Target: GTP cyclohydrolase 1 type 2 homolog
Amino acid sequence: MLAQQLISRFELFAPKESAFAGDPIGLQIGNVQQTVHRVLVTLDVRPAVVEEAISKKCDFIFSHHPLIFRPIKSLDLSIPQNQMYADLVKHSIVVYSAHTNLDVANNGMNDWLAEAMNLKNVKAVYSKHYDTNIGRLGQLSERTSVTQFAQSLKQTFDLQGLRVITPDRQKLIKKVAVVGGDGGKFYPEMIQSGADAFVTGDVYYHTGHDMLADGLSVFDVGHNVEKICIPMLSRMFNKWNDANQWGIEVVESTTDTNPYQFM
Model:
């Protein structure tokens, strides 16, 4: 199968045009006309992930977070990040990344997170600024305290800890909004949508103050919960593989790319 065949099918599901302006999605490195046999699905492309791809003889890496967020200023191979690029080229590994277009896609990242939290009656939350949906809003099966919901999130996403912003730990919540990744800046839209709780990651300190002043309960579960994309994308790719008889093997990355440790 050519790499382009998987890419074209994926872009029917999550068009590149739906990504936020300036988001460096799409082909990151390699040749889309290359024949590929084994696809490694990962959240991040880090040196250890590339080593995993090489050891497992994968010739395509499909990631959620882009390989190249910022322009490369040099290719000094004494820098581990640059050596990773060289290793990808040396081993003819194609890298493709789907970021905000996967976040906003129907049955994409934010829907997967909402499903994992067992939210009901889920609908999209729209942002005029970005002219697209930027999250999901759903309902818990019953009103739950902030403390209880925090504990359930730790179990759902296998977290050692999470940060909670709330005016009252015993506050009862029912309507929950979610934006995967760094979604703190979207909290005004979540309030406008009717949410009384918001699940996201990487909340900025001063934004946390604003959230608190506005009476919103926020659960910062971190960026790494987006690793839910690994099994979900793998399932999708296997379905397409069977339907189209591509003859590829889909491999789920087992490398932990979370940079944080809790002590």
Observations:
- Residues 106-221 form a domain with the Udp-n-acetylmuramoylalanyl-d-glutamate--2,6- Diaminopimelate Ligase; Chain: A, domain 1 fold (CATH 3.40.1390.30).
- The two ends are 46 Å apart (CA to CA).
- The chain has a mean pLDDT of 96.
